[in-house]
Amino acid sequence: MNKESATLEFFGPLLTDPSKIKREAVRRRKQSDEKSIVAAEIPDYEADGWQIDRRLKRSIRVKRPKAIDERLENRFWMLLARLGYPEINAGRKFTMLIDRKGAEPLRKQVDVFGKDDETVIVAECKASVSFSKRSLQKDIEEFANLKKPIASAIRKHYGEDKKLKIIWLFVTENIIWSTPDKHRAAGEQIRIITERELRYYSQVAEHLGKAARYQFLAEFLKDQVIPELSDKTVSAIRGKLGGKPFYCFVTTPRDLLKISFVNHRSLNDPEGAPTYQRLVSRTRMRDIGEFIKGGGYFPNNILINFVRNVRFEKATLDENAGVQFGRLHLPDKYRSAWIIDGQHRLYGFAPIDDKYLNQNVIVVAFESLSKTEEANLFVTINHEQKSVPKHLLDDLEGELKWGSDIPSERIGSISARLVNLLNNDMGEPFHNRITQQGMPTTNRTSLTIPALKDALRKSGLVGKAMLNNKVYDHGPLCGRNDSETLDRARSAINEFFSLVRNANMNEWESGRDGHLCTNIAVQAYIILFGSLVKYWEVNTASNAREMEIEEVLMGIDEYIKPILDFLESSTAARIKDEFQVQFGSGGPPEYYFRLCKLVKAKFSDFQPEGMADWEAEQSEDRISDADNKLKSIVSEMREHIFSTFKKVYGTARDAYWEKGISDKTVKIAAYNRALDTPVDERLPPETYLEVLEMKKVVEAKSVWPMFKPVFNIPEPGEKGQAKNLKWMERVNELRRIPAHPAKERKYRVEDFEYIDFIYDEFSQRLLTAMDADVPTVADAAGDDEND
Asked: Which residues touch 766 (CB under 8 Å, ≥6 apart)?
């Protein structure tokens, strides 16, 4: 009887064959169930939620999305498979035979089960279709009551001598945990994995393979003893660097991986703050693995920090060097050594053969460094060797500059920590919506830390740096100290954006595809929040700092209402029409002033800083100027085209018109428009050409050299192309705004800027062309041959 069949007495069914685990993974990876049916069965299947996927010659392929609870179980099962667990449950009907006092043994279904040589994973999975608050008290109590009989069944099956460590997990998705439920789970030693942690560990496992199991176990077996490392010693030297004790020794990846832990930015473990590392690069790790297999080795050390004091047995002392030689007892507990630098070198051993885990690596270990000291070391090393991404440094500012005496650093630190807290607040507007270093971006992760930090600085909500960065001017959300400021701001921002989100949930959930939960929009709303609070303080002689956050939100309620009313009553198309702005630094202020305009429509004295200048740009004079410039551009381009043709081909219509324009469709279109005009009022044929038709005329290969000096205008900020005529298409679009006022289309700020740019550039080129000789037909042909 093979092992998989034998397990059915106590466990069943259980997979131990690697090839079968791979086949199971293929099935579980799919988000939908699939079947082949005959055509006659289609109505019955469609009534049961199935959809036609594709029609084959002899059958119909249908599919149906798997239920949310099954998808969650599959995601966690896939995680264990990626972590390299050699024994995992098969299917969704895995059961254990458990004993009951005074009753017959009972088979208990377990959602996900995994085992390796040292640990067992027992997981209960609960999911909700959408975010919801629900009590898990009954589920936790039931799971806790089953721990003892399940543990007994595990010992019976694997033997009492195995001493396996059992990790009890409650895995959830879209469920907002209450504080009492969190305490209940912790009291029963049941660990919680939400979708955020699951996504993080899945990403780590995808990069590291089975080596990620050590990172996983370091989280859930923190401080538990590793029997294999009991009394494990290495030769080492002990000394001091910068006044800090350090050890230098040689060990193997096999031993170091078991005790090490990397607190990545994307996990942001509060117990380990600050977190500073980035997820490993898969390409870099693969290259390192190939380097090792080819006989390569690393002459530079891996830098770690022992989080607690270690035992060192001194043998000799070198007084001149100030170092001691002796035996270092490696820590024998999970998560006792934090990797400061060198994670790629260590994890590079992961994808290659097990035998390479016994190679030597050089380690320099500090002892009981503070987390801020760790982070400073990491930034110092990596910023000198390889530039640390700006968004990671922005993220780190919340840890490295906390409590700084420099106001701008202090405000940046508060803002950085605030953004991370907002991202972690389950059920709140920004939960999991902010891009984290090393984690894949999705439509949902539409926001970035630098953008939100910048908006918080500009809003003044958590203060401003004054007098050449010497004075910290506290903002309306500031408290008695920075921690209280963080708490007040966290509550206020969540409450404020809950109003915004709830006013149009569909648009908020659209993420980067919409115009509400984007960097530009959220920056604008944060700045607006600051302006509304100031307006309320002035109107009511209030001081927000002296009031509870709830009172502040109540105070600005009437001022934010015009915007909330707009959101509630608007479709996605209308929001896009009103708030689609240019990308770049000009986008947030433009969006912000459009929000201010909605407020000002009801509160005429609402005039935040910069509003008057923005309104001036929207004035009738500015619009009239844009209209006139567009008309002039179109008129001048037509005049230049045909004055050039007349100089080259002659003034007779059959010369400049027929010879100049090679595209018959252009001529026919102009002629048809001319027919709509009475004969005695009819103008020269070129009068009836549209802008895009003139574009076709000038870009024709035979005449392009004549017009290139005037018409070849690259877009602002773009590299030149062979023919830069995109501007003619945009001019054609812009001229529709004054031409069709019934559609209520309006110029945007960037439209004004673009019209000014084209008008100035085109006019200057025309002036230059007047002083130059007009190319002849022969010249044009010659240039064409050269091209």
From this structure: 636, 640, 710
